[in-house]
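Weekly sync, protein design subgroup
Attendees: M.S., D.O., the rotation student, P.L. (late)

Item 1: inverse folding check
M.S. brought a backbone from last month's batch and wanted to see whether the design step gives back something sensible before we order anything. D.O. pointed out we never logged the input encoding, so this time it goes straight into the notes. Structure tokens as presented (341 positions):
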């Protein structure tokens, strides 16, 4: 398949700039894999489409307020750091703008001295390895001075950092939110559990590679970015028990999906595991775990719309996107969603 096969025309005014309130008031397109019927609902209706004995698998990764602004120590010229991933101790892979200011050995100060950074290496792709230092906890410093690393298509300033976190976020490490989970409220999650639907947790730390465009014409030639994941034995047992009892395993988001299918592909079964995955799911992929998927509306020609097409079918996915544009759904990170069953 060609990358251009996954293009669709999206009016700019449909790109959601701010999150909707309350979270579960977002719209939800309901899609069935066995037919072509499309229903238009709201996310708070999701409980009507979940059955007792099903389980939801959610990604509990928490976004780091990883965009920080500071000064180069010797010239006081302005600089922006975007922290991508922590490696060892206080060494972080970072995206620096402007990069020409960040030579090896250069030092920077952020938050009036609250945080300092020294460039220790330059990677092949131009990203910098930087050693961070501060008095006390680095994450506490970032919480004070950092901004959420919103996607480039969001131009509005986010007034409440928690609106780019899921209500169940727990494990710090993502550079972007697992956005399918942004629609849940704590009250809705309780209603879901009260109905007899179990909720299991995995962790996949989302990298900014999720926003990188596919630059090759032939989809099969694209190389995915690598992201760290972890799944406990408790969650593995829940999935296996759900399958054994005839329930459905429904993934909340493409990140949860990639975690489950990565483990199944690697291990041949669902069991506790952690590691890095660069799994690329596109039409023709054979799913071993998923019975349902909750996901937002994704960018044209992105790996995410390719994943959805693999699960729901290419033709039906592109028709659903046409319908979403026609019905004025809100797109991307702060937008509406679909559930595929």
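Designed sequence read out in the meeting:
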């Amino acid at each position: 398949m060609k990358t251009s096969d996954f293009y669709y025309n999206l009016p700019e005014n449909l790109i959601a700039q701010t999150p909707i309130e309350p979270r579960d008031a977002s719209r939800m397109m309901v899609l069935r894999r066995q037919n072509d019927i499309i229903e238009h609902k709201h996310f708070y209706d999701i409980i009507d489409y979940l059955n007792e004995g099903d389980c939801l698998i959610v990604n509990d990764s928490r976004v780091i307020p990883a965009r920080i602004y500071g000064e180069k120590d010797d010239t006081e010229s302005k600089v922006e750091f975007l922290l991508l991933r922590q490696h060892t101790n206080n060494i972080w892979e970072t995206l620096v703008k402007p990069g020409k200011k960040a030579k090896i050995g250069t030092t920077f100060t952020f938050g009036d001295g609250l945080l300092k950074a020294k460039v220790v290496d330059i990677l092949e792709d131009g990203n910098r390895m930087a050693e961070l230092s501060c008095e006390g906890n680095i994450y506490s410093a970032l919480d004070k001075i950092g901004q959420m690393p919103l996607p480039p298509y969001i131009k509005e300033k986010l007034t409440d950092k928690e609106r780019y976190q899921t209500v169940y976020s727990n494990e710090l490490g993502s550079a972007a939110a697992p956005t399918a989970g942004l629609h849940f409220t704590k009250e809705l999650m309780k209603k879901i559990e009260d109905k007899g639907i179990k909720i299991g947790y995995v962790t996949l730390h989302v990298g900014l590679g999720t926003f990188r465009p596919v630059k090759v014409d032939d989809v099969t030639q694209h190389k995915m970015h690598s992201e760290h994941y972890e799944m406990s034995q408790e969650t593995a047992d829940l999935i296996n028990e759900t399958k054994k009892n005839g329930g459905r395993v429904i993934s909340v988001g493409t990140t949860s999906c990639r975690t489950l299918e990565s483990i199944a592909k690697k291990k041949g079964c669902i069991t506790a595991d952690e590691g890095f995955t660069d799994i690329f799911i596109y039409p023709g992929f054979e799913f071993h775990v998923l019975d349902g998927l909750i996901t937002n509306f994704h960018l044209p020609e992105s790996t995410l719309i390719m994943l959805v097409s693999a699960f729901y079918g290419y033709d039906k996915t592109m028709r659903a996107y046409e319908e979403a544009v026609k019905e004025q759904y809100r797109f991307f990170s702060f937008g509406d969603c679909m559930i595929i069953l």
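Discussion: The chain has two domains: 3-63+160-340, 67-145. The CA atoms of residues 58 and 201 lie 5 Å apart.
Action: P.L. to compare against the previous round before Friday.
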